[in-house]
Design brief:
The protein has four helices and two strands; from the N terminus they run H-H-H-E-E-H. It has 115 residues and is mainly alpha-helical. The longest helix is centred in the C-terminal third of the chain and has 41 residues.
Length: 115
């Protein structure tokens, strides 16, 4: 089945998963859409990203039931927004720490080579 058709089916499935309590995982979506392979979750996530850019209000939650769902209330959106801001902040902290570690690692390696 072409990707465009799969995405249309995906949109239809998500329209039946309104509200946080109806979240559906990428794995479940892949199973329903018969998407196989080690990259199935990634393919689902990329199609969901496309649907978001096309205007569908798809949210996600890591809490049970974890997965994707369509926004049903402003509160759900605000919770999603808080989670995204937290992820961004944590990623920024990790980026800075990795940069420090790399500098320290290569400076240490250079000193050893010079001896």
């Amino acid at each position: 089945m072409p990707n465009k058709e799969i995405k249309t089916y995906l949109k239809g499935i998500l329209e039946h998963h309104k509200g946080r309590g109806m979240a559906i995982s990428a794995r479940e979506l892949a199973d329903v859409l018969a998407i196989k392979g080690s990259d199935a979750d990634r393919r689902i996530r990329l199609m969901i990203l496309e649907l978001i850019w096309e205007g569908l209000p798809v949210l996600a939650t890591p809490q049970e039931p974890a997965g994707f769902f369509l926004a049903d209330t402003w509160e759900e959106y605000h919770e999603y927004d808080r989670q995204m801001k937290s992820r961004i902040a944590e990623s920024a902290k990790r980026r800075v720490q990795v940069k420090k570690n790399v500098y320290a690692y290569f400076e240490g390696a250079t000193k050893v080579k010079l001896m």
